[in-house]
Amino acid sequence: MDKNNQFGYHAWLQPRVIESLPGFTLSGLEGFAYDECKKGIARLTGGKPGNTNIELSISDTLTHEAYTITGSFDGISIAGGGESGLLYGVYGLLARLSQGQTQFDVTEKPATSRRILNHWDNIDGSVERGYSGKSLFFKDGQIAYDPERLHDYARLLASIGINQICINNVNVYFQSAQLITQKLPDVARIADIFRPFGIKLIISVHFESPALLGGLETSDPLDEDVANWWKQATAEVYKHIPDLAGFLIKADSEFRAGPMSLGRTQAEGANVIAKALKPFGGMAYWRCFVYNCMQDWRDTVTDRPKAAYNYFKPLDGDFDDNVMLQIKHGPSDFQVREPNSPLLGAMDNTRQGMELQVTQEYTGQQKDLYALAVQWEEIFEHPVTSTSKTRDLVGNKIEAVVAVANTGSDANWTGHLLAQANLYAFGKMAWDPTLTAAQVTKEWVALTFGTNPQLFDPMVDMILSSRAVYEKYNAPLGIGWMVNINHHYGPSVDGYEYMKWGTYHRADTKAIGVDRTSAGTGLTAQYHPYVRDMYEDKKTCPEEIMLYFHRLPYNYRLKSGQTLIQYIYDTHFEGVDDVKGFIQTWESIKEHMPIDAYTPVRQRLDAQLKNAEEWRDVVNSYFYRKTGIADEKGRKIY
Ligand code: GCU
Fold first, then answer.
1. Which of 277, 473, 502, 574 could disulfide-link to 612, CB 3.0 to 4.6 Å?
2. CB 420 within 8 A of CB 444
3. 623 vs 475, 544, 546, CA distance in Å?
C-alpha cells in the first residue's frame, strides 16, 4: 500500500469531505497561505463549487504570528499579523470547519514566540529514544530524506503552531558535529522545505567543535582562537541558512564535553557560542541537564534533582542575552510523575525555555498508550509562587516551550497511531498553555476520526485516562525509575538502584523513598517558600508525588485509609484491569473506524497488556518479598 494512503499519514489533517459545508471561493493576498487554504478547503469539501468567500489579508494591528478569523458562511475573513499569522489563521479556520464550526469570531496569538521540537536523530539514521522508525532527515551517515514527506511533515507541524525544529541529536557525535562544516548545502535544502511553513531550523553542535573540527588544541571558551573559530564557523553556517534559529548544546552532561571539564563556568561556555550567533540573530539554546552521572549509590548526600538549580541559579545574569537555558520540566528526567524543576521561573536575568518530551521514553515507548497532555496540564498548573503558575510563561520569563519529538519514518509518523495525539497536544499547548488536556484531546479525535459520538466519547475517555492507568502499573507515588536499564521499557525495580546515575528509591524492608525535605537532602529549599512548604509537609504534599519528597514506611496511611503497601498492590492490579478495559473499548468502537486504524492499535494494546501484567507481577512480588506483608484482598502474589 502507498504509505501516504495508510490511515494516519495525514494525521489531524485527515481528508474528510464534510457534507454540511458550503462551497468556497478565495480572495485577497495570494501566496503560500492562500495556496494552503485552497488545498485545505478542497480536502474538506471535495472541491464543491460555491460562493462563500474567504478573504485573506495581513493586518498591521496584529503581532507577526497572531491572527483573527471573523464571519460566517456568508463570508469569512482571515487576517494575520504577518505571513506566519496568516498561515496559522488558515489552519485555524480549516480545523474549525472540520469540527463543524459555522460562526467565527476568533483572535489568537501564541503565548510564546518559540515552540520548538528537538529531534534526537543521528546521522546513521537511528533516533535516540525514537519509537517510530528511523530518522526523517538522515541515513547511513548522510542527509537523506523524502522531500514530499518532509513537506507534509512541515505542514503538520505548522498546523499546530510549531515554529522551530532541531534536526539532530543533542548527543552530537563526530559525523553530526560536521553538519556545520561539511554538510551545509544539504542542511540548507532542509531549511528551504520548512521555511514557507514558518519553521526555522536549529542545529545541535558539539561543544568541542573547535578542537574536533577546527584542529585547535583546545575548545576552552576563554581562548581567543576558540572564540574566533566559533565566529568564522557560524558566519559560514549563516551564509547557507540565513534564518537559522540557532544552535543547541548539551555540555557537561552525561559524558558530553563542556566548559566545566575545562575549568570554566556554564555561562562562559554558552557565551562564546552566543557571541558568534549574535550578529545573525541566532540563539544559543543551552541545556541544563547537568548532573553528576558518576554518583556512588552509597552517597546519600548528593541528590541529582538538586543539580540543575545548583549549577545554574548562581549564574543568573551571567549569560549573554541570546543564550536561552533549556530546562527539563522536572528535576529528574521525564518520569511519569515529577515536581516541576525548581529552576523554572527562578532566574530573573536569564532567558529560559522549558523542555518536555513527546517521545515516550519512560512513558510507554509508543507501545503503551499514554496521554502526555494530561501530564502537561499538571506541569502548567504547577505553582511557581503563591500567586503564579508555570502556565504564566511570560510572568515566569519562560520564552520557549520545547519538546523532544516522537516522529520518525513510520507511515503514521508516531508508531502508535494514538501517539499522534501527543504531538498534536504539544503544539497546541505550547501555543496556548491554558488549554486543558480534555480540550486538545477532543480536538485531536474530532480532526482525526470525526465526531460520531459512538466513537468519539469512548476514545476521548480512553485517551484521557491513559496517563493515570500507566502510572498505576508503573513506579508508585512519584518515585520513578523502576525500569529496565538502558532501554527504559518494562519493570526492573532495582535496575538503577545500585548504579551511578543518581536515581535511587532506597526501598528496604521497612520503608521506601528519599527524604528531600529540609531534614533530608534539602531539595525543597530550592523552591519558592510557598512551594517549598507545600512539599515539605506530608499533610500538604500532593499524595501522588509523596515518595519523591518523603520516605514512608509501608504501613503509612494514605488519605484513603489504605496503607502504602496496599496502595501499591491495589494500583498494580487495577492497572492491568484498566488495560483490559482499553481493549474492550477499542473492540466496541471498531466498526466506526477504518480497519487500518483499528488493527495496529489493537496490536499495541495487546503488547501493553503484557507489559502491564509484567509490571504488576514484578512490582508486587518485589514489595511482597521485601515486606512480607500479604495483600489484604487475598490475591496471589508470588
Ligand atoms: C535521558 C535519555 C538520554 C538523553 C538525555 C538527555 O537521559 O535517556 O537518551 O540523551 O536524557 O536529555 O540529554
1. 473
2. yes
3. 12, 18, 17
Active site residues: 254, 333, 361
Q: Which atom of ligand 1 is nearest to the CA of 170?
A: 13
* Ligand 1 centroid, distance to 41 Cα (angstroms): 41
Which one-letter amino acid corresponds to residue 249?
Answer: I
How far is the C-alpha of 300 from the C-alpha of 597, rounded, in Å?
49
Residue 36's φ and ψ, nearest 5 degrees, are -65, -35
Torsion of CA 441, 446, 450, 451, to 10 degrees: 90
Give the residue among 600, 615, 574 at the shortest CA–CA distance from 469: 574
- Any atom of ligand 1 within 6 Å of the Cβ of 333: yes
- pLDDT over 70 percentage in the chain: 99
Q: What is the pLDDT averaged over residues 347-360? A: 97
C-alpha cell at 187: 542542511
Closest residue by CA, ligand 1 atom 1: 333
DSSP string, 456-483: HHHHHHHHHHHHHHHHHHSSGGG----B
Q: What is the DSSP letter of 17?
A: -
pLDDT of residue 3: 59
* Nearest CA, atom 11, ligand 1: 333
Instruction: Dump pLDDT digits (tens) for 453-505.
Output: 999 999 999 999 999 999 999 999 999 999 999 999 999 999 999 999 999 99
Nearest 5°: the CA angle 46, 47, 53 is 125
Three-state SS letters, 84-148: HHHHHHHHHHHHHHHCCCCCEEEEECCCCCEEEEECCECCCCCECCCCCCCCCCEECCEECCCHH
* Residue pLDDT, tens place only, 278-301: 999 999 999 999 999 999 999 999
The ligand 1 atom at the shortest distance from the C-alpha of residue 361 is 8
Is residue 170 lining ligand 1, measured as CB closer than 6 Å? Answer: yes
Provide the whole-model pTM. Answer: 0.98
CA of 171 to the centre of ligand 1 (A): 8
Q: What is the pLDDT of residues 222-243, one digit of tens each?
A: 999 999 999 999 999 999 999 9
